[in-house]
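It would be a great kindness if you could assist me with a short task in structural biology. The matter concerns a single protein, recorded as an amino acid sequence and a row of backbone structure tokens. The record follows directly beneath this note:
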Amino acid sequence: MTFIHTPPDKQSILRWLLSEDPAEIAELWALADATRKKYVGDQVHLRGLVEVSNRCERNCLYCGIRADNRELQRYLMLSDEILACAHKAVEVGFGTLVLQAGEDSSIEAQWLADIIRQVKEETDLAITLSLGERSDEDYQLWHAAGADRCLLRFETGNRELFDRIHPPLAGQSSDRLAILARLREIGYEIGSGVMIGIPGQSYESLADDIDRFRSLDLDMIGVGPYIPHPDTPLAGIGNRWDLPKGEQVINSVELGYRVIALARLVCPQANIPSTTALATLDGPVGRELGLQRGANIVMPNLTPLKYRQMYEIYPAKAASTEDAEQSCAAALRQIRALGRTVGTGRGDSPNLHKSI
């Protein structure tokens, strides 16, 4: 039988988000896995994650590294440490280095451009940036230095909710959808995504966001359940924003899998990671189930252990005590146990050269 992919409309997305029918959910898993196989194949690409800095000037209400969290020891990695992580990525067979940080202006644009350029001169790695909202000039400088991809999650398309949980910096506004459009114009492969189960997020709003992935034409999609952090305001005040009964999205690992599957159906050629949040909530099986329900990317952590536990966006993050070799070995075991193969090379999104 020939597999035919028909992307779901918003009402179908909403139905699957709300469904309590095991047969219907089993159909979703099967469709997502078949779509993944057809459009991105059986390879699972490995991205080496480096958490460059846990400093952040923003006060997002859900995030453990928010500026007002005084319980956290702050750090910025040295350039030599970042370069060592890049060489470790090559050593263990990764094709991409992901540089992630809070929104930290102490990461000077030229300093990072010099690191990007050196990584490109010394390795064949693709470079993904996940550094929050920066100026067009910074993004242009980093792209010219060799950065290939940029990830900026819009978290929720509900403007009122976004503004509530992402207080703007003084004198500035935040329009992440506009930034994503500019990143595309600059020449980046672009990625975005949402949190699942933010207090105040309705199923209708989440369905809108998943449908929005399609119109954004995303090359990468990162989604994960909201995990409360005790040192954040949202952990304590979320119940003040209760929606009518049955409308609030549940921040469950089950919903995380469903959103991954639906993201695969609406953007069949995107690269979609099976995230750390899934493993945090569901143990080692979380990453495996993500890969069986539409994901094709795994991001082992290369951050030096002395920094790893300080990058606590949410508590009890999985793999916070594994070194690079252990993290890679665990990922390889899971990939092979599923009968999948480890991807080679950069692992660019097929969406860049799509044929549908």
Q: What stands out?
A: The first helix runs from residue 10 to 18. The chain is about 40% helix and 10% strand.
